[in-house]
Design brief:
The complex is a heterodimer. The longest helix of chain A is centred in the middle third of the chain and has 21 residues. Chain A is elongated. By secondary structure, chain A is an all-alpha fold. The termini of chain A are far apart. In chain A, 71% of the residues lie in helices and 0% in strands. Chain B is mainly alpha-helical. Chain B has one domain. Helix content of chain B is 72%, strand content 2%. In chain B, strand 2 and strand 3 form a beta hairpin. Classes of the chains: A mainly alpha, B mainly alpha. The interface between A and B is medium-sized, with 16 and 17 residues.
Amino acid sequence: MMIVVFIVVIIGGLGSIEGTLLGAIIVGLTANYVGYLAPKLALASNMILMMAILMWRPSGLRPAVK
Amino acid sequence: MKTTGMKQSYGTLTVKTAMLVIAGLLLFAPFLFQDIRALEVAARICIFIVLVASYDLLLGYTGIVSFAHTMFFGFGCYGAAIALRQMGPGWDAVAIGTLGGVLVSLVVATVIGLISLRVKAIFFAMITLATASVVLVLASQLSQITGGEDGITYRAPDIFKTATKLMVDEDGKVLRWFGVRLNGKLAAYYFVFTTSLVLFLILLRVTVSPLGTVLKAIRENEARAEAIGYRVVAYRTFVFCLSAVMASLAGSVYAIWLKYTGPDTALSFSIMIDILLMVVIGGMGTMWGAVIGAVLLVMAQYYLRDLMGAASEAVAGIPLLPELLAPDRWLFWLGIIFILLVYFFPRGIAGTLMTRGMRT
């Protein structure tokens, strides 16, 4: 659970509330849909999502400090 | 290698004496402690010293926080294990497996390093955490190759078999030296010891070289190091690769020693936490700290329970104390010992001791 919380904060960008909302929605939806469509992949879906987003935006989706 | 001309403090002398004692004990371990479990502990200590020292190069010297160190360790383990299972016991399998593990580690480390070492420390830590957990999931799911949760058992090269006789006396029996049989187990232990020693000395050489100084500069002030003209990203990637290779080699040696490789012994996060604890307890930024941390933690994990059992029996007459010291509560006491160690040695045991007595 702690790791999921951490992932949400990182994806959203440190220090921003909207980012957390966005991150939580994305993480929740991906975890469930991946679990439904490809159950084996679900074990790593959170981590792959985080890696993909950090590659695209290295400081999260909505960082508070640019 | 020793810094000549500088007067060494008492703390440094204490630490170096402790190093000599530990090295001596490990060198003569099969002769000093003649049971299987002690030999197991000694070999584990040797391998963890290398593993922790290579992690210390990242965390203590360069200031990179990575959670992927067990992943590289696991690459080494699985490389040797898969090669030994597919090709049968032999040195060619060991060489191919080790090389394969090192290559995979090198490629993965380079990719992670080049892509993500320019981002902030916390993001880098998260990316390594993510990669490590993906690899852990892969290792448990690709059961065709990795054996899944059950892991792989295989045979080591013939010279390391317990039945192998290194030297025989006139009757054709295994020769004994000081009551120790010169059999394959002894050869396996000295293989582990020598490889660990060589790897540790290489790491030690790196830290006292000009490269080590640059790494410390990067840790202390990244912007200034960049301004002086050192390419910080290149150095960081190089160190990340170097420590990955070292961890992978340590993993291969461990796989040969243990003759079993599974997610619990090679890839799990509890090993990562152990490594972190060893680095912090021993002292970040000193290679000696890695040795002290590895020795203390491995010894505690193996012997604290026995010690507490003895203590509990010794105080059997007194109320409450035997229950408090019952062997089942060893994790509780381990935790208390760690908290006390961090409280009294804020820079790690070696770090605090070496700064103490500097003024005199």
